[in-house]
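Q: Can someone sanity-check these two? First one:
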Amino acid sequence: MWQANPTWGSPRIVGELQKLGIDIAKSTVEKYRPKLRKPTSPTWRTFLKQHMRDTVAIDFFTVPTVRLRVLFVLIVLSHDRRKIVHFNVTEHPTAEWTTQQLVEAFPWKSPPKYLLRDRDAIYGNHFRKRVCGLGMKECPIAPRSPWQNPYVERVIGSIRRECLDHLIVLNERHLKQLLRSYFAYYHQWRPHRSLEMDSPDGRSVYPPELGEIIEFPAVQGLHHTYIRKAA
């Protein structure tokens, strides 16, 4: 069965055998199934983990306004602590504008070693030359493979689910205000599973002996922050 269906995993084979009236444990299948040779080179996920501290990712997402204009938001995300080191909004993104955002993201310090991005046409020759001049190495993901840029895609999803899906954006200025408010909450208060439920900026633990729990609204009341304070 495995030879006839080389892409099947052990659970799939167990399920197929059950449909044939054969009850067998997954461990038994794995015991007798031939072992696959591991790839000689590291996987993409391994690369991302090994170079976590030296990698930033960039990506665009769109936001419609109440007047049906479409605004483009560029995010520059540091993989290490999931920090959004820079963002900006425009209605007409160009290669020159995008390049300038990357320069502004690292004005006073050396940029990370690797830059993860998709293959959008906006990242043309002008962009690539500037990236090279900054001393960064580009890592374009495969075509139509957003899963290869998972951290920035996850952040964009969080921005939509936790902020923009619940509000009506009036204009470019309003969108920037909303994003600044959300990013302040995101960096200082929002727990991340990948950071062992800490926030990107690091968050103190308030033991019960410090006093009662105080609640504060954040992001126009969409979220709340909690601390302990003596009465």
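And here is the second, same format, sequence then tokens:
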Amino acid sequence: MSILMLTARDSSSDKVIGLDAGADDYVVKPFDLAELTARIRAMGRRGKETLPPVLEWQQLRLDPNNCKVTYRQVELHLTPKEYKILELFLRNKQRVFSRSMILDHLWSYEEAPTEEAVKVHIKDLRKKLRAANAPADFIETVYGLGYRLKQI
């Protein structure tokens, strides 16, 4: 499915955030109706997108095509934010993410919670991974820096 963002936010950083969040096109209001319909037609002409690959780390699998996450064949039932945090880690293996970086990647400016919310989501995600028999430190804390997936 193609996504076109239609918004009044016109700064360069807003456009980057929107496109990085998954939008295929970004149109700022006020807009010309003929241009908007041409952009929609152009998006429709683009070939069928290939499905995103399954992301894997050790025994963990995240399938973006059906939003299913398993660890050693055990399905994890995650909240949308837990899923996004795990996806962020899997798409950036071995990168350390601070709480503020996670906030910047996954929350909008309007709904941005405190860093404590990230800590709670990480704790809950670790608990669900442990329930599926993942190591307790599967998501590793890099003290003073943030979190990352632990390398064996």
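A (reply): Looked at the second one. The helical segments are 12-20, 33-45, 80-91, 99-106, 115-131. The radius of gyration is 18 Å.
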